[in-house]
Specification:
Helices cover 45% and strands 22% of the residues.
C-alpha cells in the first residue's frame, strides 16, 4: 500500500484526531464497565431504575461511538456468538448478511499475517494475563487493507470464568499512513543531514547553544559533531564573525516578530576556525524558527565551505582584469551595440580611431542619435548589414565600411560583427570589431599603380629570360655537339692506332723482333690509357648534363668482382702487388647496372694499385647487411694513404691531392668523382678511411633488394626474322678462343664492311680476312644498300657518320627490305655519347660497339652473333 507524502501540519492534525478518538473509546469502555458493575450490584426492586439508567447509558454510548467513528462488538464466549453494531460492518467492509457472527468468522476476516498474533492476544486477555489492547489489519472483500485499533473488556462469573468480551474497533489506517510518512520523512531528512557536504545545524536562542549539528561538520572544521555541541556557538566563530552575528540577529528577530517575513532567511559569509587553527570561509544560510504564537524559538542553519568558490571568484576577477586590460589596450576597435544602432560598449581603441577622447564620450554622442547616423559615411548601410548578420544565424560577417571621424575625416575600415546573446541582459546584441585600413587602401592604390608599370617590366624581363634560356639551351646543344665531335675526332685516329698496333702484335704483316713487339705493346698501352681518359671525360659530361641512364638488372656479385680484379691484374702483376677478393657467402646477387658497377670497382682498384708501392697488397671485400638491406664493396690497399685535411677534396672532378702527386702519378683526377656520381645514381653512398702512410679503405654501399629499384633501360633491337631465337642484345666481347677461324673448306661468311675511313676499312678488312672471312667494302650507306641487295651478306659492320647516307638511315632501309631484315648489323662507330647507343638500336642495329675496339673483341662478337643467327631457310 503506497504511503502518501504528508506535510508536518497534516501529521500534527492526524495525531490530534487519533488522540481524541482514543479518549472517546476509553470513555465508551468506561461507560460499559459502569453499566456492568451496576447490573451486578442492583437488587430486584430497583429493576425499573436500572432499565432507565441502561437506556441512558446506551444513548451516551451510541453518541460516543458515533462521534469517534467506532464500532462496538459483544462476544458471548460460551455460545460463540459475536454481535456487531452497524459501524462494525462498515469497518470490515461487510454487509450484515456477509458476517456469520462467530469468533472464527471474525478471525478469518483478518490479514493472514495478523491472525495468529490476534488470536493469541485474545486468548491472553481471556485468561487475564493482559488487557485486550491491540492492532490488526483486515482485508475487505475488494482486496483493500485497513488497520483497526481494538479495545476490549472481559466479563467473568464469580469463579473468574470468562463469559463475555465487549469492546470497540476504530479505523487507524490514515494514522498508520501518517506515522509511516513521518518515519520516512525523518529518515530522509536524517539521510540528507548526515550525508550532505553542507553542515546542517539548529540553535536554541535561550541558551545560544547548538541543539543539533550534522556529522559533515568534521569535514568542514575538523571537530566532531559531539565536540561542537559541547561548546557554545561563539566558539565556532571568529571574533569578527561573532560581532557580525550579534549585530544582525537581534534586529532580524525583532523585524520578523513584527511581521516582516523577509527577515526569516538571511545569507552571509563568515569565517570559522578549524581544529588545526586554520580558518575556513563559509556561506551560512540561517532561517528563524517560530512557534504557534509567531515568536522566534530557534535558528536552523546551513553552513557551506566556499574555499573553492572564493578561489574561482578570484580567478574570475583576475580573468576579468586581464580581459579588461586586453580590451583597453588592443589596437583594434571593439564594440557592442543594439540592433537599432545604440552603443552598449566600446573600447579605447575604437574611440581613438574615431577621434574621441574616451569611450564614454563616443557612446554619449552616438546614443543621442545612432551609430549609423553619427559614424557611418552612408547611414543607409547599417540596416542592410544588420539584416545580413541576422541571416548568418550567429556567424561572423566581414564588410568594408567608411566612417566619419569627429574631425570630419573619412576613414576606410574593415567591419566584422555577429549577433550574439548578451550574457548580462539575455537579449540579442551585435558584437563587432573595427580595423582602420585607410593606410592599407592607400598602399593598395599605390601598389596598383606600380603593378601597371610592373607588368611591362615583368614582360620585358620574361622576354630576356626566354632569350637567355634559349641561349643556354643552344649552348648545351653546342656543348653536346662539341663533345660528340671531339669524341669522334679523338676516337677515329685512336681506332687506327690501336688497330694497327693489334695487327702488328698478332704479326699479321709478318714477324717482329722482340724489341719491335715491345714497342708495339707500348703504343697499344698508351692508346688504351688515352681511351680511358676520353671515356672518363665523356661519362662525367653525361652525368653533369643529367643524361646518365642506368640499365638495372640482376648482377652476379662474384662474377663482377672477379672481372674487375682481372682487369687490373696485369698492372698489379707489373708492380708485384698481391690481389685478393673476399665475398660474404650470403651475398649472391643484387640489382644494379652491371657495366657501371664494374666501372666503379675498376676505378677504385686501379687507384689502389696506382698509389700502392711495389710488393704491397690490394683487396676487394663484399659484405651484406640483411637488416639494413645494403651491400658494401670495400677496396683497401697498403699504399701511401691520404692526409685527413685532403679527404674532403677527393671526390671533386679534375682534382688530385697535390702537384707533387700529379707529377708522380698519371691521371685526370676524374676516377673518384665518377665513382661517387655513379654510386649516387644507384641510390648509394661512398665512404673513405685513410691515414697518411697507412693505406686507404674506400667503401661503396648500395641498396640490396630482391626487386629492381628502377626500370631496366636496356634497349631492344628490332624483332628477329627467326622466332626460335633472339639475337644478342649486348655486344660484350668474348674470349679469343671462342672466335675461331672458320673451318678449312667451309664457305667463307660474307661480311659487308661499311666505313668512310680508308684506314679503318683496311685495318678491319685485313684482320677479318686473316681470320677466314670474305669481306666486301662500302664507302657509305648508298653503296652498302646496293651491295647488300645485289649479294645479301651474312653480317654487316656499319659505321654511323658517313657522307651521302649515314649509317642510321642505311640500317633503317636494310630493315625495310624483307630479304635483309634478319641480317645481324653491328653498329661500329666513334660516336660514344650516352644517346648514341639508343639511337643505333632504335634504328634497327642488332648491337652497338664504340670505337676504338680491340680487334680480338670485334672478332669474338661477330662470331657470337653469327652463331645465334637463324639458319637460312
Amino acid at each position: 500500500m503506497p504511503v502518501p507524502r504528508l506535510s508536518c501540519a497534516q501529521l500534527v492534525r492526524e495525531n490530534q484526531d487519533l488522540r481524541a478518538r482514543l479518549a472517546q473509546a476509553e470513555q465508551a469502555l468506561e461507560a460499559m464497565r459502569s453499566a456492568k458493575q451496576q447490573r451486578a450490584g442492583d437488587s430486584q426492586p430497583a429493576r425499573l431504575d436500572e432499565l432507565g439508567m441502561l437506556h441512558r447509558l446506551a444513548e451516551r454510548l451510541d453518541l460516543a461511538t458515533r462521534a469517534a467513528h467506532m464500532g462496538v462488538w459483544d462476544w458471548d464466549i460460551r455460545q460463540n456468538e459475536l454481535v456487531w453494531d452497524d459501524r462494525m460492518y462498515a469497518l470490515y467492509g461487510l454487509k450484515r448478511g456477509d458476517f456469520a457472527g462467530a469468533y472464527e468468522a471474525w478471525l478469518y476476516g483478518l490479514h493472514p499475517d495478523d491472525r495468529a498474533a490476534s488470536d493469541a492476544i485474545s486468548a491472553q486477555a481471556r485468561r487475564g494475563e493482559c488487557a485486550y489492547d491491540t492492532e490488526f489489519r483486515v482485508v475487505w472483500p475488494d482486496g483493500s487493507i485497513h488497520v483497526l485499533k481494538a479495545y476490549g473488556d472481559v466479563v467473568r462469573d464469580a469463579d473468574g470464568t470468562p463469559l463475555r468480551m465487549i469492546g470497540v474497533n476504530f479505523d487507524i489506517t490514515e494514522h498508520k499512513r501518517a506515522e509511516e510518512a513521518l518515519r520516512e520523512s525523518e529518515a530522509r531528512y536524517r539521510l540528507i543531514s548526515e550525508h550532505s557536504a553542507d553542515v546542517i545545524w539548529t540553535m536554541d536562542l535561550a541558551s545560544f547553544r547548538f541543539t543539533y549539528v550534522s556529522p559533515s561538520v568534521q569535514r568542514l572544521r575538523g571537530y566532531t559533531a559531539e565536540e561542537v555541541l559541547a561548546q557554545p556557538v561563539a566558539a565556532s566563530l571568529t571574533p569578527e564573525a561573532n560581532r557580525e552575528v550579534a549585530a544582525n540577529l537581534a534586529p532580524r528577530i525583532a523585524a520578523f516578530e513584527a511581521g516582516d517575513e523577509s527577515a526569516r532567511v538571511y545569507i552571509t559569509e563568515i569565517e570559522q576556525p578549524r581544529k588545526d587553527g586554520s580558518i575556513v570561509p563559509t556561506e551560512v544560510v540561517t532561517t528563524l524558527l517560530s512557534d504557534a504564537q509567531g515568536r522566534v524559538s530557534g535558528v536552523l542553519g546551513v553552513s557551506r565551505d566556499i574555499t573553492a568558490r572564493r578561489r574561482i571568484e578570484a580567478a574570475l576577477r583576475e580573468s576579468e582584469r586581464r580581459t579588461r586590460n586586453l580590451l583597453e589596450h588592443v589596437p583594434i576597435g571593439m564594440f557592442q551595440s543594439t540592433h537599432d544602432g545604440r552603443l552598449i560598449y566600446v573600447n579605447p581603441a575604437y574611440a581613438a580611431m574615431m577621434g574621441y577622447a574616451s569611450p564614454e564620450e563616443l557612446i554619449e554622442i552616438v546614443n543621442q542619435s545612432s551609430v549609423a547616423r553619427a559614424l557611418y559615411e552612408d547611414p543607409a548601410r547599417h540596416p542592410l548589414l544588420v539584416s545580413e548578420v541576422e541571416q548568418a544565424q550567429g556567424g561572423w560577417k566581414m564588410y568594408e565600411n567608411r566612417y566619419r571621424c569627429k574631425s570630419g575625416q573619412i576613414i576606410d575600415a574593415i567591419l566584422t560583427f555577429s549577433e550574439r546573446i548578451d550574457p548580462i541582459s539575455g537579449q540579442p546584441a551585435l558584437f563587432g570589431f573595427v580595423q582602420d585600413i585607410t593606410a592599407r587602401k592607400r598602399a593598395e592604390a599605390a601598389l596598383l599603380q606600380v603593378n601597371e608599370t610592373l607588368e611591362q617590366r615583368v614582360a620585358d624581363r620574361t622576354a630576356d629570360l626566354l632569350q637567355a634560356n634559349a641561349e643556354l639551351a643552344r649552348a648545351g646543344r653546342l656543348k653536346d655537339e662539341f663533345l660528340a665531335t671531339m669524341s669522334h675526332e679523338l676516337r677515329t685516329p685512336l681506332n687506327a692506332i690501336l688497330g694497327r698496333a693489334e695487327l702488328l702484335r698478332e704479326e699479321l704483316y709478318g714477324p717482329l723482333a722482340p724489341r719491335q713487339i715491345g714497342a708495339v705493346h707500348g703504343i697499344e698501352t698508351s692508346g688504351r690509357h688515352l681511351l680511358a681518359l676520353i671515356n672518363d671525360i665523356l661519362d662525367l659530361s653525361s652525368i653533369e648534363a643529367g643524361r646518365l641512364h642506368l640499365r638495372i638488372g640482376p648482377v652476379a656479385v662474384e662474377s663482377v668482382c672477379q672481372l674487375s680484379v682481372h682487369l687490373v691484374a696485369e698492372s698489379a702483376k707489373a708492380k708485384q702487388i698481391a690481389l685478393s677478393v673476399t665475398i660474404d657467402p650470403q651475398v649472391a646477387a643484387l640489382y644494379a647496372d652491371e657495366r657501371r658497377l664494374t666501372q666503379i670497382l675498376v676505378n677504385l682498384l686501379a687507384n689502389a694499385v696506382k698509389f700502392t708501392p711495389g710488393e704491397g697488397a690490394v683487396g676487394l671485400e663484399v659484405r651484406g647487411d640483411a637488416e639494413r638491406h645494403t651491400i658494401t664493396f670495400t677496396v683497401w690497399d697498403t699504399g701511401i694513404g691520404i692526409a685527413e685535411e685532403n679527404l674532403p677534396r677527393l671526390f671533386q672532378p679534375f682534382v688530385q691531392i697535390d702537384s707533387g702527386l700529379n707529377r708522380q702519378y698519371e691521371g685526370t683526377g676524374l676516377g673518384l668523382s665518377l665513382v661517387r656520381r655513379l654510386t649516387e645514381a644507384h641510390q648509394g653512398w661512398v665512404g673513405v678511411e685513410s691515414a697518411l702512410g697507412y693505406g686507404s679503405r674506400f667503401s661503396v654501399t648500395l641498396p640490396w633488394s630482391a626487386e629492381p629499384r628502377a626500370p631496366t633501360l636496356a634497349a631492344t633491337a628490332p624483332a628477329s626474322a627467326c622466332p626460335q631465337r633472339a639475337l644478342r642484345r649486348s655486344a660484350a666481347p668474348l674470349s679469343t678462343a671462342q672466335a675461331t677461324t672458320p673451318e678449312a673448306g667451309a664457305a667463307r661468311p660474307r661480311i659487308l664492311l661499311v666505313d668512310d675511313s680508308t684506314e679503318h676499312r683496311q685495318i678491319i678488312k685485313d684482320y677479318l680476312q686473316a681470320h677466314g672471312y670474305a669481306v666486301r667494302v662500302a664507302h657509305n650507306g648508298l653503296e652498302a644498300l646496293a651491295m647488300a641487295r645485289e649479294e645479301p651478306p651474312a653480317f654487316v659492320l656499319m659505321d654511323i657518320q658517313m657522307p651521302k647516307m649515314d649509317g642510321l638511315e642505311a640500317i633503317r632501309r636494310l630493315r625495310d627490305d624483307a630479304r635483309l631484315r634478319a641480317v645481324p648489323v653491328l653498329a661500329l662507330t666513334a660516336l660514344a655519347m650516352p644517346d648514341d647507343r639508343k639511337r643505333c638500336l632504335d634504328a634497327g642495329a642488332t648491337a652497338y660497339l664504340s670505337k676504338p675496339i680491340r680487334l680480338q673483341d670485334l672478332l669474338a662478337t661477330i662470331r657470337a652473333m653469327l652463331v645465334e643467327q637463324c639458319p637460312a631457310k
